[in-house]
Amino acid sequence: MTSSPRLDLEVDETAASFRSGDLELGRYVIVPDSSQLESPKPYLDPLRTRGGHVVTLFRPWDHVWHKGLAWSLPVVGDENFWGGPTYLRGEGYRQLPNNGAQVHRAVSAATVVDGVARFGHTLDWTAQAGARLFTEKRTLTARLLDGDAWALTIEIGMTNDTDAAMALGSPTTRGRENAGYGGLFWRGPRSFTDGVLVTATGEGTGAEFRGRRSEWMGFAGRHDVIDATSLVVMVDGADNPNHPPQWFARSEEFAGLNPAPFFSDELEVPAGGTATFRYAVGIADAGSERAASLADELRAIL
Predict the structure, then answer these.
(1) Which of 64, 67, 247, 271 has CB atoms 3.0–4.6 Å from 43's, for a disulfide?
(2) How far is CA 2 from CA 5, 50, 100, 271, in A?
């Protein structure tokens, strides 16, 4: 009799690994070795389908601060926790001494209960000059879904540790049109370029969907060598700020998905206040036709 697949969690000093048998489905790096220029942050890479196909890209040459799947913010007051240059109104992008770091402090949870693997930790958001701006509590869960998919959830609570309100925004809120990136950002493999974006209203390209509001969005891309298609679906939590979000989505030039809570409007977090966010991500050995049903499963989890 064949046993049902199970999910395991392995944790060491630098990473948490979500595993199904001999297959590592996702590796969450909690202590990165990134340079200050890249705004060091925890990230998920690689992420794999249950068939073993990698659906993330780490440190691409065009944007070395892109790290698979990561919570990454370009505008935190005057600080940059995205990486690389900062967009300045009327000046364009300039490299400034403002690349902050999300620094792991302590593990708060590492369990597998009833098929759900849970990892939690606390982080300090530290400006390049050394000041702590936010304390964050972050929890990730992973679970296997029926058939071809598995699900990841990410819960974030950011508490403002300064004595003044702190604005969270994007290049668009600082003056660059249709560049509202920031938040939970996924960068797909090179072979996914020119892949298919899908929402509840249909399929299209990044140029067509970028800036649109939607509860969920998916990306179906093809792999080189193995002639297979994989699907990534992201669902925004109903209680998130500015839900349903505008999306920073790309299929041209590169594959990217980002439910961007600050695409057009900054979120002001008061001194001592906490901003919370919840997301679900589904990964499947499937094409775009599976996206809507996978989004339904993810919504039920959230």
Answers:
(1) 67
(2) 9, 17, 49, 55
